[in-house]
Every structure is written in C-alpha cells, then in structure tokens.
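Lay summary. Proteins are chains of building blocks that fold into shapes, and those shapes determine what they do. In this project we predict the shape from the chain. Here is one chain we studied, written as its sequence of building blocks.
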Amino acid sequence: MKPQNPKLRRFTSLLCIAVVICIASIIIAKGQDTRTRRTENQTPPEPQNLDIIKVDSNLVRVPVIVSDREGRYVPNLTVEKFKLFDNSAEQKITYFDAAAEPLNIGLLLDTSRSTEGSLDDIRKAAKNFIRELRPQDRAMIVSFDYAVHMLCELTNDRKVLENAIQEAKVGKYFGTLLNDAVAEVANKAFKQITGRKAIILLSDGQDAGSIVLTDELLSEQSESDTMVYSIYYASDFRPFGNGDRDFPRRRGIFRGRGRIFNLADPQRPGPRDQRRNGSRVDGAEFLQELAEITAGRFYQSNKEDLKKTFGLITEELRYQYRLGFYPGEIHKDGSMHQLRVKVDIPNVAVRARQQYRAQ
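And here is the predicted shape, written in a compact code that computers can read:
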C-alpha cells in the first residue's frame, strides 16, 4: 500500500476537528435557544411568604392593674409574680406584657344636647389628652348624639386626631346613643386588636334611643378585654316632653359628622328608652358599673377637672399588665368562666378582667 501523504493527513485531521466544532456549536446554540424560549414562556414562581403568623383565637387575654393600698401603681413586675385562675383552676400564663405595647384608645365624646354648654371645655381637655400620648400610641375619635359618628379611625397622627376632636359638635336632634357607641367600638373596632386597648367615655350616662339595651351592654362588656374609663359629668339640661319622641328614628337618611355607624338589624327592635327592671337607669351608677366590670375606673368630674382626670387615666394605662392563657380542652358550650388574678406580693390591690365565655 502506498504511504499517505503527511500533508493530506494533517489537512484531513484539521477538517474533522472543524466539523466537530461546528456541530458542537450548533447543538449548544439550539440548547440555549430552547432554554431561552422555556424561560420566556414560563410563569415566574410565586413569592414565598416567609413571615407567616399563626393567630389562635382561643387565647384569653386579661388586662390587669396592680396598685398598693395607697393607690400607687406597682411597676416592673415579672410574670412569675402573677397567678391566673379559670374557675378556680390555675392556668399557665403563656402571654405577658408589661406596658411595652402601644396604647389603642377609643375616645368617646357625648355630643347630645345636654353637653351644649360644656363641649368647648371637653374638646380642649380631649386635645390635651391626645398630646400626652406617646408617638407609637394610637387613638380613634367617636362622638354620639342621635347617631354614632366615627370622626377619626385609629391613628397616631396628632394633627388628624385634633382636627377630629374639633369636628365634634352638638347634635341637631335629641338622642344619646351611648350604649350603641360603646358596643360599636368595643365589639367591632377593637375586636381584632390584641394589644393594650381602652375606651375613655365622657358622658352623663343617660342613654336615649340605643338599640343595645343597658343590661345587654353590661353583659357583653363583662366578657371584653377592653377596659372602660368612664368620666361622669352632671348636666342640668333636660329635654322637653318624652325623650323617646324627641329624637328622630334612624332610617339611614342622616348625614352626620364623619361616618355614621348603622347598627340597625331587621331582627331587632328599634330605638327605645333604656330601662332596667322598669325604672330609668341612673347615669352615674351605670357608668361606674360599666367601668368596674371591665377593670377600668370611674371618675366623677366637672369640666374644670377634665384635664386632671385625663392625666390620671394616661398614667394608669402606662402601668397596665396584660396576661394571656390558652384554656386547653374546654367545652365550647357558651358557658361563662370566672377569672381571678393573684399577685404574689403583700398589700396590693388587683383589678382584672373578671370573666369570659367558652365559645
């Protein structure tokens, strides 16, 4: 056999290498094009939620105020100092807050005709109270007369709050929907708020026209974890005639200041005088009972003392403790459970939420 020419052999080798490189390039290019088309047509993955918080509605929260026999608040207590009982059975405290959380305040202003001569002083004192809150604290402003007016929802914007207070004006018609206002804020606006919360209620305590009856309200609020601080101021104003006839029925036609709450329910009776056992409720007595069953405090004040009264409330809220526990295996039969809090230090007085319903 005749030996192959070295030059021809080298040329053949180079040609084979070139062909291999060309084929490889085509394959790689096609692969890249396929991946590009797949990427362009593919739906981007959903972002993962890495901050999932489990909320357990079974947690029973118990606001607590601890003071000594002279009425001075006791600060800096640790969870080990508290014992919490559910129907006399001691519970493990699984939630504890010692005044670290922001405050959530519902400021409820009676703007019925009885406040006509005092409203300027009430507005001034309310603005001073707002200025005493910390930057992280929030408040909402609600007025009530013949309707319930949401003047400002929860916010820490002081300017917005002061403007809302200034918008509070005496109602055009007779009527004082005190019960409806408290129920609306406690049972709806504050229902989903888990931090420290309180209602500050300024009124003479006389309801006229609410859907929520007085006994209903007291029963509901005895189960609430919203403390009520009621400030009673007496009024010499008395509407002429029958109070139940002097204010208009709410049919959704009124356009009050801010958003008007509508508590109307076709299954429930309309507005009526608030009566307990056939007699009209005493305003001061009712406000005191409302405060006591919610672990709040009752103040009897005149308009000159309002600034001082607001200051006392602000101070107390700074010293509020909040405990919480999981009831465990209980029968959710709607039964009422009694709560009791003990503090393991001598000579102290304890105010706390008194009960909750198993449901």
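What the prediction tells us: Residues 114 and 235 are 6 Å apart (CA to CA).
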